[in-house]
């Protein structure tokens, strides 16, 4: 069986015309979902650690529920059902951003919760001894240390998030994979296009993973 692989079609012009736009959206979606997910995830983590049942129960249901559903299903549900509820379309890009923030928040929440719980209780008692409120203690003492400890894990989850952005293909959003697919169809080289997409994903994720390992070693030295 001769696949007749030909890489000559893959040029910078092709990359800039078809792939660059998708790569920009994939990176933007990753950045927005990471920031939004960490903010919402931190709120959820604090709710679960508050000890107040009326905060713990809904946060637990949300986190466990989201973590039990495949991301592609959440993307499709939001994209198809929300327009029916509000009576107008919201677009694939906006739908993807909202969905990713809501979904990733559940995973970032568990990372933040573990990070907070990793801080020795003596730090909490020290803040209380200084007369700090719960909010001040969390903001000034606990969270800064917790975020430093969990930074490598947060970045690892961000890499996974970047890989998952390819799932927006299901709702027609123009991400990097979509750019490669269109280029492959236009030039009649779908196999080469998908192989090139896999290679680009690998290079980006491997480089980021290497950077995270380096950061983890530096944090370990600081400790």
Care to describe what's here?
There is one protein chain. This protein is mainly α and 223 residues long. 80% of the residues lie in helices and 0% in strands. The chain contains eight helices and no strands. The mean pLDDT is 89.
The helix/strand series, from N terminus to C terminus, equals HHHHHHHH
Low-confidence stretches: none
Percent in helix: over 70%
**Overall pLDDT, averaged?**
89
Outline of the structure:
The protein has helices at 12-49, 53-67, 71-86, 92-117, 121-129, 134-164, 176-186, 190-222. It has 223 residues and is mostly helical.
Strand-helix topology:
Blueprint (H helix, E strand, L loop, with lengths): L11 H38 L3 H15 L3 H16 L5 H26 L3 H9 L4 H31 L11 H11 L3 H33 L1
Helix pairs in contact: 1-2, 1-4, 1-6, 1-7, 2-4, 3-4, 4-6, 5-6, 6-8, 7-8
Keywords:
223 residues, mainly alpha, 8 helices, 0% strand
């Amino acid at each position: 069986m001769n696949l007749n692989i030909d890489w000559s079609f893959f040029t910078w012009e092709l990359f800039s015309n078809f792939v660059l736009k998708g790569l920009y959206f994939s990176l933007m979606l990753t950045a927005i979902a990471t920031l939004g997910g960490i903010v919402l995830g931190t709120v959820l983590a604090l709710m679960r650690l508050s000890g107040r049942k009326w905060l713990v129960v809904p946060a637990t249901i949300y986190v466990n529920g989201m973590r039990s559903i495949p991301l592609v299903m959440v993307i499709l549900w939001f994209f198809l059902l929300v327009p029916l509820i509000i009576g107008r379309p919201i677009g694939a890009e906006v739908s993807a951003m909202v969905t990713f923030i809501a979904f990733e928040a559940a995973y970032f929440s568990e990372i933040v919760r573990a990070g907070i719980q990793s801080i020795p209780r003596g730090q909490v008692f020290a803040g209380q001894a200084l007369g700090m409120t719960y909010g001040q203690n969390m903001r000034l003492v606990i969270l800064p240390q917790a975020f430093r400890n969990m930074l490598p894990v947060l970045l690892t989850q961000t890499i996974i998030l970047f890989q998952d952005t390819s799932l927006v293909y299901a709702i027609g959003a123009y991400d990097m994979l979509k750019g490669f697919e269109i280029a492959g169809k236009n030039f009649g080289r779908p196999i080469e296009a998908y192989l090139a997409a896999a290679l680009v994903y690998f290079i980006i994720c491997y480089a980021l993973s290497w950077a995270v390992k380096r950061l983890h070693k530096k944090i370990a030295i600081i400790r």
